[in-house]
Write a structure and sequence with these properties.
The structure holds two protein chains of two kinds.
Chain A: E1 4-7, E2 10-13, E3 19-25, E4 31-37, E5 43-51, E6 54-57, E7 64-66, E8 76-78, E9 87-94, E10 105-106, E11 110-114
Chain B: E1 4-7, E2 10-14, E3 19-25, E4 31-37, E5 44-49, E6 55-58, E7 61-65, E8 71-76, E9 85-92, E10 101-103, E11 107-112
Parallel strand pairs in B: 2-11
Antiparallel strand pairs in B: 1-3, 3-8, 4-5, 4-9, 6-7, 7-8, 9-10, 9-11
The chains are: A mainly beta, B mainly beta.
């Protein structure tokens, strides 16, 4: 049981390049999300998905696309990388969303630098 | 939109001292969660609080949820070096937004032996 797996762990891009951050979970979780973490700002929600085929925007969605074709995978695409997207990106998953809350299981993160 | 403020941003303590971090939401929450992130690591779930006025304990950690469900606190008694890390609260506003967590900025705890 690997939990939430993110690849790559580190990446350096040039401004204008595109790339996809991969996220996979093997816990059959319905709910998946992407966060970015910047110093002093906590974690900010980029996009989330409540199930296969359903995605929605979070707090900071501009410059990012997502899709959810399977329950297991939730890739995050940077269309045209900008220096402001330099950050640590975390993928998380949980069984579902509910009033009582569901623990989020985080991957190890992808450290992305845009030059 | 919903905002979650967390204070203090930094806390330096001597081993054995107590530590408290506070979390305040601009809106009433459905539930609140707490996470710990070790340096270089990822956030790890600690606990969730759902009921107004709820208090939960995990060994030396005490978590409280305010009566109005807009604030919360985490208190650590007699800190140890293993408590080092960043502590985050994360609020869930509920309604049509169940599961959309808004994280506080985090409190970075340093423990001096």
């Amino acid at each position: 049981n690997a939990g939430v797996t993110q690849t790559p762990k580190f990446q350096v891009l040039k401004t204008g390049q595109s790339m996809t951050l991969q996220c996979a979970q093997d816990m059959n979780h319905e709910y998946m999300s992407w966060y970015r973490q910047d110093p002093g700002m906590g974690l900010r929600l980029i996009h989330y998905s409540v199930g296969a085929g359903i995605t929605d925007q979070g707090e900071v969605p501009n410059g990012y696309n997502v899709s959810r074709s399977t329950t297991e995978d939730f890739p995050l695409r940077l269309l045209s990388a900008a220096p402001s997207q330099t950050s640590v990106y975390f993928c998380a998953s949980s069984y579902s969303s509910s009033p009582d809350g569901q623990p989020q299981h985080f991957g190890d993160g992808t450290r992305l630098s845009i030059l | 939109g919903q905002q979650v403020m967390q204070i203090p941003q930094y806390q330096h303590v001597q081993e054995g001292e107590d530590f408290t971090t506070y979390c305040n939401s601009s809106t009433t929450l459905s539930n609140i969660q707490w996470y710990k992130q070790r340096p270089g690591g990822h956030p790890v779930f600690l606990i969730q609080l759902v009921k107004s006025g709820e208090v939960k304990k995990q060994k030396r950690l005490t978590f409280q949820f305010g009566e109005a469900k807009k604030n919360s606190s985490l208190h650590i008694t007699a800190t140890q070096t293993t408590d080092v890390g960043t502590y985050f609260c994360a609020g869930d506003a509920g309604g049509t937004s169940y599961g959309k967590l808004t994280f506080g900025q985090g409190t970075i705890l340093t423990v001096h032996p």
